Amino acid sequence: MFCPRCGQEQISNETRFCSRCGFLMTGVGELVANAGNAEALGAAKPAKIESARKRGIKQGLFIFLLTFLVVPIVSILTVWAAAEPFAVAISAILLFVGGLLRMVYALMFESSEPTGKTIEQTVYQTAQNLLNKGQNQNALPPQQSIPISSYMPPKHGNWRDTNDLEPSSVTDPTTKLLDKKQEK
After folding, report:
1. Which residues pair with 17 in a beta bridge?
2. C-beta atoms surrounding 53 within 10 Å
3. Which of the residues 27, 49, 61, 74 has the least number of beta carbons within 10 Å of its own beta carbon?
4. CA distance 28 to 8
């Protein structure tokens, strides 16, 4: 089999990426075997998309039923270790209540449509729309310019003497005032 992008011969039909250009090769072998008929590939593998609500209910039921497996194992280990039964109570409460809460969350907040968005995705999308309102996402940011005068040397007569740059003493004004009073 050859890479459709660069023509590099592949070692096997199970190669996932082209060794030269990195092209994703999954499905190319089946496409070549079906003589380029992509519709035959799609008909062979019907995509079953499950809704978020259905997945959530399945997850919650799994966690709930896991209670009946984990709690007896933890209780046997607790008896064997002669420990307090806190671990049994905690695991029973977490798994039992956690499974029920997951199912309730799925029923209340998740979409029943296979491609529907969850509440979190809807809120995030709305927030992004509000932030980007009035802005073109494909536009460049506004131009920022620095005036050329900041890169030029100072004009003639603006040079400072190094004595101007020295910090004056804190007591200089007081000393000058005292000197003026003594002269009078």
Report:
1. 24
2. 21
3. 49
4. 13
- Phi/psi region, residue 87 (left: phi>0; alpha: psi -120 to 50; beta: rest), is alpha
Distance in angstroms (rounded) separating the CA atoms of residues 62 and 70: 12
pLDDT of residue 71: 94
User: Nearest 5 degrees, angle CA 134-CA 129-CA 51?
Assistant: 160
CA 25 to chain centre: 27
- Our CA dihedral for 49, 53, 56, 60, rounded to 10 degrees, sits at -130
For 121-178, write each residue's pLDDT tens digit: 777 888 887 777 656 666 677 777 877 777 776 666 666 666 666 666 777 778 878 8
Residue the block writes with tokens 């890479």: 3
pTM of structure: 0.43
